[in-house]
Amino acid sequence: MAETARQKRITGRVMHEFKHGELKSGPGGKGGRVKSRRQAVAIALEEAGASKYESDRRNRRNLRHTERKEARGKTAQQEREGKAHIGASGQRESSRSMGGKNARRRTARGKKAANTRAHRADGHTKQELYARAQRRHIEGRSKMTKRQLENALGLH
Q1: pLDDT at residue 3, rounded to an integer
Q2: What is the CA radius of gyration of the chain?
Q3: Which of 30, 62, 108, 111 is deepest in the core (most CB within 10 A)?
Q4: How far from 140 is each of 2, 58, 98, 114, 143, CA to CA, in Å?
Q5: For the segment 67-103, what is each residue's pLDDT rounded down to a tens digit?
Q6: pTM for this prediction
């Protein structure tokens, strides 16, 4: 089973995707939707780099691959919720110029960009964006930041 906290988080995310019918099998998801819980568990452990059927080298490779996928915001959960990357919130930026590929720390430029976005002339408040998301039945809206709501609504 998953050993580290990171592996547990990845396993949890994959199982979440399975429960919501978003987990796909095969390269690029071309194998179709996963219907078997056992297959979902196998995919989760492989993505987390904790499979007992893979070598240590292959497990490390799988974990690095998954981390890159999460950093780019390419998981089904992130795409559905309109998130740029894992932990995207507040004044963090996901672009390389604003603090790196997965932006672990807040940068001066990121703070300035976030402040500018918050006080932009377009006049959308978070409450207005939330109301629009509610009308369009966007899932996961209650946990989204203002920036994520903009992305999900396609306003950005």
Answers
A1: 78
A2: 18
A3: 62
A4: 26, 34, 26, 22, 6
A5: 888 877 777 777 776 665 555 544 444 554 544 445 5
A6: 0.49
Nearest to 124 by CA among 86, 152, 85, 83: 152
Q: How many CB atoms lie within 10 A of CB 100?
A: 15
Cβ(13)–Cβ(45) below 8 Å: no
**42 Cβ contact partners less than 8 Å away, ≥ 6 residues apart:** 51
Q: Kindly report the number of other CB atoms within 10 A of residue 106's CB atom.
A: 15
Measuring CA to CA, which residue among 15, 78, 80 is closest to residue 44? 15
Task: Determine the 3-state secondary structure of 141 from DSSP.
Answer: helix
At 1-14, the pLDDT tens digits run 667 888 888 898 88
Backbone φ and ψ for 50, nearest 5 degrees, come out as -125, 20
Residue 117, classed as helix, strand or coil, is: helix
- Using an 8 Å Cβ cutoff, are 93 and 103 in contact? yes
In the DSSP assignment, the letter for residue 27 is: G
Of the candidates 39, 40, 97, 93, which has an alpha carbon nearest to the alpha carbon of residue 71?
A: 93
Q: Which two tokens stand for residue 99?
A: 């603090």
Please name the residue that has the structure tokens 């795409």.
79
pLDDT at 104: 56
